[in-house]
Amino acid sequence: MRIIISGGTVVTASDIVKADVLVEGGIVTAIAQQIAPDDHEIVNAAGCYIFPGGIDPHTHLDMPFGGTVTADDFRTGTIAAAFGGTTTVIDFALHSKGDTLRNAVATWHAKADGKAVIDYAFHVMVGDMRPEVMEEIPLIVEEEGITSFKVFMAYKNNLQVDDETLFRVLRMASQVGALVQVHAENGDVIEVLVREALAKGQFEPKYHALTRPKEAEGEATARAIRLAEIAGAPLYVVHVTCAEAADAISDARKRGLPIYGETCPQYLVCDETDYERPDFEGAKYVMSPPLRAKYHQEVLWGKLKNMELQAFGSDQCSFNLKGQKELGRHDFSKIPNGSPTIEDRMAILYHFGVHSGKIGLNQFVALTSANPAKLFGLYPRKGTIAVGADADLVVWDPQVQRTISATTHHMNVDNNIFEGMTVMGKPRYVFLRGHKIVDGDQFLGKPGMGKFQRCERFAPFPL
Ligand SMILES: NC(=O)NCCC(=O)O
Ligand SMILES: [Zn+2]
Ligand SMILES: [Zn+2]
After folding, report:
1. Residue 288, ligand 1, Cβ within 6 A
2. Counting ligands in written order, which one lies closest to the CA of residue 217?
3. 251 lies in some domain
4. Based on CB atoms within 10 Å of each CB, which residue in 41, 173, 298, 402 is the most buried?
């Protein structure tokens, strides 16, 4: 495996340089203006960008949710991710009520091991924060190489934690070098609004959005930030959708607090009017938090441009319309939450961000790869192109145009929320630790090639 990727433009979060990249033994061993070939395989990257492999910090593969299980597992989901230019996913190991964190992690290893075609790490999504579960956090960090824990301020009577619990988790996590991720929506308010809507006979998908107002997200985000501030802890807010939440993050960062925000492709290019689609098609867009009014898209783009949001995750959580989303055909509250986004995460940010002039190439790499690597303890092994880093590389052809469709995507699901969108930019080749796993429309990887990545403890990189 001695490869020269030749004639491309290498892009990292800080640099853009025309250079060849030498790969030996799965590692980048040189970056230079011209590398003389010996017995190397030459990969033609003329006219292309060479990006560090994408790191998707937010996926749900093979996850039970809402009485069903996501349509994509670690095989199909990571193949689709690879076609989109992602070489590492950080998936949420779901901890269920009554279970231990250790057992949840073991369950997730069993789901991924031998199936993943790209590298993977885990966060733990804590479903039941009993005192003894909280006590397990230091062990998970030390022994399992998992250093991030998601807690929920929504999904009342199910996953939701109260403020006392959130505060205790924040304190405990920061003591052991872990990062708390928060799903910030006020679950108590939402519960009342959902009950009232159903009592009024409001059953269609659009009521999912109407019962989860932006203010409920803004309030919970601001509250979580205040609790983190009191606890002296860093905080990562997942799937930020609206001005109210994004502004709370910006304000905290202006005060010097280590608060980080993530948004997702769906919140940049889809909006609340998608819930009005006829014949139950609106159910495709049922996710939490929901899609917002269109003006929030410009707010989020502005925050990405100014790096006031630091990470870009897919929140991949795919369900078929047929047989899965249909569980809520007559009651929006029973529609499984989530959408298939793992494959098109980078394409959406590239086309609507870089190609449209809203963000720069360095920002694109920071959001899709470098910052997730820094925040979750994978940097600089991953998230950059540098001597000694894993040769997770994407040769990205900015001239290729394609139209996104469920009929051609690689996800194992019958719908795509970006259906019909035409985008510029597509991976020509994708390398995982020096192995070519994607060559145009051909998949060359194998289940089991993806390896579990232990995460280092949280380090406050200046982001
Ligand atoms: N986002 C969503 O609707 N489903 C996945 C679970 C979550 O991230 O809250
Ligand atoms: Zn969430
Ligand atoms: Zn999620």
Report:
1. yes
2. 2
3. yes
4. 173
169-188: per-residue pLDDT in tens? 999 999 999 999 999 999 99
- Both tokens assigned to 70: 């996501």
Question: Does the beta carbon of 313 sit less than 6 angstroms from any atom of ligand 1?
Answer: no
Q: Are residues 393 and 347 in the same domain?
A: no
- The answer as to whether 352 is a domain residue is yes
What integer pLDDT is reported at residue 152 of this predicted model? 97
**Apex 39 CA angle, 38 and 44, nearest 5:** 85
The response to whether residue 264 sits with its C-beta less than 6 Å from ligand 1 reads no
CA-nearest residue for atom 7, ligand 1, is 288
Neighbours of 435 (CB within 10 A): 18
Residues 332 and 438 in one domain: no
Ligand 1 pocket, residue 60 CB under 6 Å: yes
> pLDDT for 107-135, tens place per residue?
999 999 999 999 999 999 998 889 999 99
R_g (Cα) of the chain, nearest Å: 21
Q: For the chain, which residues score pLDDT lower than 70?
A: none
The pLDDT assigned to 129 comes to: 87
Could you tell me if 58 and 39 lie in one domain?
no
Among 388, 353, 387, 382, residue whose Cα is nearest residue 370:
382
Query: What is the share, in percent, of the chain residues with pLDDT greater than 90?
Result: 98
* Owning domain of residue 234: 53-375
| Sign of the CA dihedral running 159, 139, 147, 84 | negative
Shared domain check, 308 and 194: yes
ipTM of the complex: 0.98
Say how far apart CA 26 and CA 323 lie, in whole Å.
42
Residue 299 lies in a domain: yes
* Same domain (yes/no): 248, 137: yes
Residue 129 domain-assigned?
A: yes
Task: Indicate which residue's Cα is closest to atom 4 of ligand 1.
Answer: 338
Same structural domain, 330 and 438: no
Question: Is there a single domain that holds both residue 43 and residue 86?
Answer: no
pLDDT digits (tens, 9 = 90+) for 229-255: 999 999 999 999 999 999 999 999 999
In a shared domain, residues 135 and 195: yes
Check: CB of residue 374 under 8 Å from CB of residue 383.
Answer: yes
Q: Could you tell me the CATH number of the domain that includes residue 117?
A: 3.20.20.140
- Residue 270 near ligand 1, beta carbon < 6 Å: no
Distance 463 CA to ligand 2 centre (A): 22
CA-nearest residue for atom 9, ligand 1, is: 288
Tokens 């230091």: give the residue: 138
For the Cβ of 262 lying below 6 angstroms from any atom of ligand 1, the answer is no
Q: Quote the mean pLDDT of the chain.
A: 97
